[in-house]
UniProtKB/TrEMBL annotation:
PROSITE patterns: EAL (PS50883), GGDEF (PS50887), PAS (PS50112)
Species of provenance: Ferrigenium kumadai
SMART domains named among the record's database cross-references: EAL (SM00052), GGDEF (SM00267), PAS (SM00091)
Database matches in SUPFAM superfamilies: EAL domain-like, Nucleotide cyclase, PYP-like sensor domain (PAS domain)
Taxonomic placement: Bacteria, Pseudomonadati, Pseudomonadota, Betaproteobacteria, Nitrosomonadales
One BP annotation, GO: cellular response to nitric oxide
Residue span(s) of domain GGDEF: 503-636
PANTHER family: BIOFILM ARCHITECTURE MAINTENANCE PROTEIN MBAA (PTHR44757:SF2), DIGUANYLATE CYCLASE DGCP (PTHR44757)
Protein name stated in the entry: Uncharacterized protein
Domain of life according to the entry: Bacteria
Domain PAS intervals: 347-389
Length: 901
């Protein structure tokens, strides 16, 4: 066996790197997967087609780079554990694979493949990932688009192909290593045998035995012969023959023979040759000894040697006869040489198997176009047998219109010894043309004849897949309209056209009003039908040259290009609004929705895509704010309002951390006892620059951004601490009301469960807190909302229905949910006087609530007359400026103390 312990194997020294690079490039072009061979020191031996999605994006972002390193580590660990092939699937659907190259027990290199998908990628997922990691969205999606999609049924064949390829590289590397070693050893052996044995040993033995008579000279000569004899690297054994030349006994051996035989000299001398070589007669060595003794002519013969009754190696014996009549056998271990030759034969057989089993077509042509060889995949692709193909020319399967392109590929072949990748068509046995992709290299045989080896891939399905991927990437699968990506491309092209023609262009942004209610009530299937019909109606309102796109959810855009008549914008907008306001028939239901539409103009309002989109979006929200079912043009005032809103939102993000929020308290008076045992907690924002900011201004922003959850949790804890203080200082049953936004109720991450624990931590019962909700929450109540209300009830926390009478009032909601208080909205109290409609409504609400076992709180009480009328009507509690405005905690406590005096 090879001794590689003293020197580490370098894979780059065992291969023709240039040829291997050409082969890897061919595999990349044919299979469509990037690949590389990298040695264990990280040195890239070959690399072909590595995608930007890895190099340009993932390996430059700390988070994604960490995932790439984890992928590499996982692959290498799998290979170190002996896996013939390792596959790693990233969270984002990308797949990496690797196969180890092991030469003579050493892991010297790895065959890596670049990323590929096993199914068309979810582009929305990659779009969100680009936003998450700060990648350039368009560039990133273009890079993702270049990553090949390999159908699942092909992945196993391709991974097996690369595993086989890695084994072939390992085997060929070992073959070359062994072949070099065997050649060196054989060359050395031949030189030693020729120079030392034939020229030195036989000559010196013969001359000295004949000429040297003097004993002293003989001893000196013997000493020289012994030194030469002992210094030989090959084994040498001198045999003394019997008188009849039939038996041969060992007379002397050198050190190399001791090592090879693994026996001491004293145990070898005197033994018959048959004892040293079991099976000597089987391999004819004894006959060789007899012939050489008889004729005096040297001979050569290989002989096997045994270990534990089995052949464990081979020796090549050179047998000579000395003038003294003795025989000398000079031999060496040629096991490795024979093994190398056997391995070479096996390697050729394995390469033939790989050739035949490859899922890719492989064809060998002569330079004049004759078919010489083709594997099974090629024959199946073309429908011919190999015998039939051998009688044909390349042009029998190639359409004539490709002659010019074929000439260009042959020119490339003559200049660079390779051609492709090159897409064309073949004609199969049935005369059907189908697309193929070709890569080829020029091969020169030992006799100098040249051949073209081509790798052929049938790309029919790939073409279909590419078309499908392109449509999925650029068109909305539901409506068939261009998606956001295609829309941006179209908008960019239309801006260029408008600029060249010096004509205006309009961009419309359309949002369907109340579409969410359709989804929630009728289901997403009906919602999808509505979207398809809405898209059709919008398309009917515009010209064929205009672009209608769906950019997400219930949002559509329209590009009105090269407008010669600006008045047409209003006509189209009115037409869209009118058509979308017409009823939609969904199954047996007639559904009414409307649309809010924003319009911006190029170049008057903006000249770049993002600015135009932002303008149209702002104009759409302006239309929605004005009552929906209308359209609005963009104005600079909208931009200014949006910027102010953005600045306030940014300031809001740091308000909690910078202790800018305060909780004020407004007392609630019990009309029966004229006492104050209740109060409402109200948040205030003391902005460092703007001063006190109205909750009506910042609460909607907090709800839109989701910050209301964290802010609401802070308000609850502040209110709970104040309730504990007031219960200790003022009244043991004091209760604080806390407003809870519908966003907090609907958010699964709402920390309301921790509220119960916080009350226990403070030693407060649930009755110390009341939660105020709006009627809108009950209107859209989900099982999740119902469960939360039930949890509050079980914890003893009471619930107030705020602003009652202004929303979707319904007795069924009051019966279904655990409500404790109704709060009459100040809109009914503000103008309250005797014998008015407001008075009648208040009386009716109070009577209804008491019948249902609910208490009533009237908000916005500002006069004594209002207080007296409400008391006479049986109202339980009042709240308003008559008693106090919302005040800070210390002023609230002072108010309570003053009222006690």
């Amino acid at each position: 066996m090879l001794d590689t312990t003293k020197k580490r194997i370098k894979f780059s020294e065992l291969v023709d790197v240039a040829s291997l690079q050409a082969l890897m490039d061919s595999f990349n072009q044919v299979i469509g997967i990037a690949n590389a061979i990298i040695d264990v020191d990280g040195i890239v031996i070959t690399s072909s087609g590595w995608q930007d999605v890895c190099v340009k994006y993932h390996r430059v972002n700390p988070t994604t780079c960490g995932r790439c390193i984890a992928s590499d580590t996982s692959l290498v660990e799998s290979m170190l554990n002996g896996a013939p092939f390792a596959v790693y699937g990233c969270l984002n659907g990308l797949v990496d694979t690797a196969a180890p190259i092991v030469v003579d027990g050493q892991h010297v290199a790895n065959v890596f493949t670049g990323q590929f998908f096993t199914a068309p990628p979810d582009l929305d997922f990659f779009r969100r990932q680009a936003q998450e990691f700060g990648f350039d969205e368009n560039g990133y999606l273009e890079a993702v688009d270049k990553v090949p999609v390999i159908p699942g049924e092909r992945v196993e064949a391709i991974t097996q192909f690369y595993a086989n390829f890695a084994r072939v590289l390992a085997t060929n590397g070992l073959d070359r290593l062994r072949h070099h070693d065997a050649e060196n050893r054989l060359a050395l052996l031949n030189r030693e045998l020729t120079q030392r044995v034939q020229e030195r040993t036989a000559e010196l033995l013969e001359k000295n035995l004949q000429l040297l008579r003097d004993e002293e000279v003989l001893r000196e000569s013997q000493s020289t012969l012994t030194a030469l004899f002992e210094s030989m690297s090959s084994g040498a054994v001198v045999y003394r023959a019997s008188a009849d030349g039939q038996d041969f006994v060992v007379a002397s051996v050198n050190r190399a023979a001791e090592r090879i035989e693994n026996m001491r000299r004293k145990n070898l001398v005197g033994k018959n040759v048959v004892e040293i070589f079991p099976g000597i007669e089987e391999f004819g060595l004894l006959d060789v000894f007899k012939r050489v003794w008889q004729s005096g002519e040297p001979e050569q013969v290989p002989v096997a040697f045994y270990q534990d009754g089995r052949i464990s190696g081979w020796r090549e014996n050179y047998v000579y006869k000395l003038p003294s009549g003795e025989l000398v056998s000079i031999y060496d271990d040629v096991t490795e040489k024979l093994q190398a030759e056997q391995e070479l034969r096996w390697s050729e057989e394995r390469f033939r198997s790989m050739f035949e089993m490859s899922p890719l077509g492989m064809i060998l042509n002569s330079m004049d176009g004759r078919f010489v060889e083709a594997n099974s995949a090629s024959l199946d692709m073309l429908g011919y047998s190999l015998d039939e193909l051998n009688k044909m020319s390349y042009w029998d399967i190639t359409p004539l219109e490709y002659k010019e392109e074929e000439a260009q590929q042959l020119e490339s072949l003559s200049r660079f010894s390779r051609y492709g990748p090159y897409e064309k068509e073949y004609i199969n046995r049935e005369g059907i043309r189908f697309p193929v992709r070709l890569n080829g290299v020029l091969i020169t045989a030992s006799d100098g004849e040249k051949f073209i080896w081509s790798i052929v891939e049938n790309i029919t399905e790939k073409k279909k897949s590419e078309e499908l991927i392109w449509r999925q990437a650029n068109f909305d699968t539901l409506t068939g309209l261009p998606n956001r990506r295609m829309f941006r491309d179209r908008l960019e092209q239309e801006i260029k056209k408008a600029h060249r023609a010096n004509l205006p262009m309009a961009l419309m942004f359309i949002d369907l009003d109340k579409f969410k209610e359709v989804n929630d009530t009728l289901g997403h299937d009906m919602g999808d039908i509505l979207l398809v019909e809405a898209a059709r109606r919008i398309v009917e309102c515009v010209r064929e040259s205009d672009t209608v796109a769906r950019i997400g959810g219930d949002e559509f855009t329209v590009i009105l290009s090269e407008l010669e008549d600006a008045a047409s914008i209003d006509r189209i907008a009115q037409s869209i609004i009118g058509k979308l306001a017409a009823p939609f028939l969904l199954a047996e239901d007639k559904i009414f929705i409307s649309a809010s539409l924003g319009i911006t103009l190029y170049p008057n309002d903006a000249t770049v895509i993002d600015s135009l989109l932002k303008n149209a979006d702002q104009a759409m929200y302006a239309a929605k704010a004005r009552g929906r079912n209308r359209y609005s043009y963009f104005t600079p005032a909208l931009q200014q309002a949006a910027e102010a809103r953005m600045r306030l939102t940014n300031d809001l993000r740091g308000a909690l951390e910078n202790n800018q929020f305060k909780v004020y308290f407004q007392p609630i008076v019990d009309l029966g006892s004229n006492s104050i045992h209740k109060a409402e907690a109200l948040i205030r924002w003391e902005h460092p620059v703007r001063g006190l900011v109205s909750p009506a201004e910042f609460i909607p922003l907090a709800e839109e951004t989701g910050m209301i959850v964290e802010i609401g949790d802070w308000v609850f804890r502040e209110a709970a601490r104040q309730a504990k203080r007031l219960r200790e200082m003022h009244h043991p049953d004091f209760q604080i009301s806390v407003n809870k936004s519908p966003i907090q109720f609907c958010n699964n991450d709402s920390p309301y469960q921790s509220w119960f624990g916080y009350l226990q931590e403070l030693g407060l019962p649930g009755q110390s807190i009341s939660i105020e909700i709006t009627e809108g929450l009950l209107m859209d109540a989900t099982p999740h909302v119902y469960d939360k209300l039930g949890a509050f009830h079980d914890a003893g926390i009471q619930v107030s229905l705020d602003d009652f009478g202004t929303g979707y009032s319904s007795l069924s909601y009051l019966k279904k949910f655990d409500i404790d208080y109704l709060k009459i909205d100040q809109a009914f109290v503000r103008n309250l006087s005797k014998d008015t409609d407001d008075m009648a409504l208040c009386e009716a609400i109070i009577v209804m609530a008491h019948k249902l076992g609910l208490k009533v709180i009237a908000e916005g009480v500002e006069t004594r007359e209002q207080e007296e009328l409400l008391a006479a009507a049986g109202c339980d509690y009042i709240q308003g400026y008559l008693i106090s405005r919302p005040v800070p905690p210390e002023e609230f406590e002072a108010l309570l103390m003053q009222r006690l005096r």
